[in-house]
TrEMBL record:
Low complexity bias spans: 22-35
Region ranges (Disordered): 1-35
Coiled coil: 60-90, 149-244
Keyword entries, A-Z: Coiled coil, Membrane, Transmembrane, Transmembrane helix
Domain of life assignment: Bacteria
Protein's recorded name: Uncharacterized protein
Species per Swiss-Prot/TrEMBL record: Bacterioplanes sanyensis
Segments crossing the lipid bilayer: 37-58
Length: 254
């Protein structure tokens, strides 16, 4: 801000022309020839001169006071302008410092955002890949569980058919009186039982636990246990039949 200077009013000096002219001493008048009118005029002139002198002095004093006030106001204005100029300079310096600080902060924020963005993109890509792998493994496990369930169901059907055939064969063995046929049938039954046991043993516990439908697998396990119990019962029957065959063999041989 440019320094503004108010015009300073200098002390006003009253010139000799402005000063009240004092009447020169009147010429001596002969006391014998003076009149009352002349004395009156002289008194009026003296009073007027005194009044003009007092008035001029008062005006001079007022002008002097006003000049001093103007000087004081001018000094106050100059001081205020200096303060405003200093304040303006400080404000400019502070504004520049604030802008520099803001620029630095924005630069740091951009750097942090770039680093966070890159890291987040990498994490998102890694998580997406992991989710994809988990979904693939889950789908594969579901497919394997479904295959195991179907295989187990097929084995159960085969066991049911074998048990039905065993029951029929047992009935046939009970009614058959031929020792050789009875022996052959017993051997065939033993082979079928061994095959069914081997087939049931091939179904591992891991395959039974890999299915999502736990209740269905538990039911299948119960059915397997029931069928195993039936096979054991059939084994007992076969053992009993074998004993009967052994008892009948001496009678059948000539």
């Amino acid at each position: 801000m440019s320094d503004r200077k108010e015009p300073i009013v200098s002390d006003i000096q009253i010139s000799a022309d402005d000063a009240p002219r004092r009447s020169s001493p009147a010429a001596p008048v002969a006391s014998s020839k003076s009149s009352p009118l002349a004395a009156l005029m002289a008194g009026v002139a003296v009073i007027a001169a005194a009044g003009l002198a007092v008035l001029a002095y008062g005006q001079h004093q007022q002008l002097t006071d006003m000049s001093q006030q103007l000087q004081q106001q001018s000094q106050a204005l100059n001081k205020l302008e200096q303060q405003l100029s200093a304040t303006d300079e400080d404000a400019n310096v502070s504004l520049q410092a604030v802008r520099a600080t803001q620029k630095m902060h924005m630069s740091e924020i951009r750097k942090l955002w770039d680093v966070s963005n890159k890291r987040n993109k990498a994490d998102i890509a890694s998580n997406a890949k992991g989710v994809k792998e988990v979904r693939g493994a889950l789908k594969k496990q579901q497919s394997s569980s479904e295959q195991s369930r179907q295989a187990l169901k097929k084995e159960l059907q085969t066991v049911d058919a074998t048990l039905a055939k065993l029951a029929t064969d047992v009935k046939a063995l009970k009614s058959d009186q031929s020792g050789n046929n009875l022996k052959q049938q017993l051997q065939a039954l033993q082979q079928q039982v061994q095959q069914q046991q081997a087939s049931l043993a091939s179904v591992t516990a891991a395959e039974l636990r890999s299915g999502q439908n736990t209740e269905a697998l538990q039911m299948l396990e119960k059915q397997l246990q029931q069928h195993s119990q039936q096979l054991r019962d059939q084994q007992v029957v076969i053992t009993s039949l074998r004993q009967q065959v052994a008892a009948l063999r001496p009678q059948i041989q000539p």
